[in-house]
Amino acid sequence: FAQKDVFQLKDLEKIAPKEKGITSMSVKEILQSLVDDGMVDTDRIGTSNYFWAFPSKALHARKRKLEELESQLAESSQKKEALQKSIEKSKIGREDTAERAAQLKELAALRQEKEQLKAEIDKYRECDPDVVEEMRK
To answer: Based on the structure, what is the number of domains in the chain?
Structure first.
């Protein structure tokens, strides 16, 4: 960003150790990492590869990311609001009353009775004529 210029790999291998304290052996790896992350642009012109990074591109990238995150935030807020309304709507008619408590208690008792009956049916399953016929076959 500082020099606002276009460089070749050779130039960067000379400049980076002096100005930034990066070893010349790792310049190529670091540069490739920055290219992969989209922080540095590269282009092949003829037989040479040129690298550059301008502050304006980084600024635009940050602005784009900020706008994207703000839109996601707005969308999530709307979703949350809709869910809150849905919760409020579903609570209507489910107020805790004595009648509701009695019905819930009755429901639990009926479910327990159903489980007991299932267990009893399983207990006598071997005497079931269909099962006996199946075993004979």
So the answer is: 3
Report how far apart, in Å, the C-alpha atoms of 132 and of each of 46, 122, 123 are: 86, 14, 14
Is residue 67 within 8 Å of residue 75, measured between CB atoms?
A: no
Query: Is 86 a member of any domain?
Result: yes
What confidence score (pLDDT) does residue 50 get? 82
Tell me the longest C-alpha to C-alpha distance in the chain: 93
Q: How confident is the model at residue 2 (pLDDT cuts 50, 70, 90)?
A: low
Rounded to whole angstroms, the Cα distance separating 96 from 31 reads 65
pTM: 0.43
Tokens of 112: 């327990």
Q: How many CB atoms lie within 10 A of CB 54?
A: 13
